[in-house]
Amino acid sequence: MTQALLIIDMQIGFDSPYWGTRNNPNLEKNVKKILEHWRKQSLPVIHIKHCSTEEASSLREDNAGNEFKAECKPLENEIIFKKSVNSAFIGTSLEQHLKENNFHKLTIVGLTTDHCISTTTRMAGNLGFDVTLISDATATFDRAGPNNTHYSADEIHNIHLASLDREFCEVVTTQELIKL
Prior knowledge:
Layout: E1 3-8, H1 27-40, E2 45-50, E3 79-83, H2 94-100, E4 105-111, H3 113-126, E5 130-139, E6 143-145, E7 149-151, H4 153-164, E8 170-172, H5 174-178
Parallel strand pairs: 1-2, 1-4, 2-3, 4-5, 5-8
Antiparallel strand pairs: 6-7
Helix pairs in contact: 3-4
């Protein structure tokens, strides 16, 4: 097997009002659909969990928000890598695991498009992995920018997908991936 599914930061802490308005209300449904498709084919699934070191974060390991969302809880045989920064490759043995198991192709889904998804996708591409990023199985939140600017989650999401596509990965939809 040369391909693996990376599910990044699909944790209930991202349901907190703290994060603000999120785009892609179908995120969980699409991640679940991809996960079921992957498992049906007995393909490897790797879960990435953000374990914040910030005292007040809902994503701290000792907080209920650190738990995986119900739609994508890992099975006993599925590997979990814990990280505390945006990239799933920094401070983990993910790269080593992928190379030892001859995983050359990665399919990436999860949260958030402009942080952990983008950073992990860029690093994976730079490390030589063939990456597919699923546009409707990722999402982000509205952001305030410098000089009192405001960017909607859809704007941020689409800009990041555009900057990643054909440079670090191929961006496709859930339907294109599964070929329904």
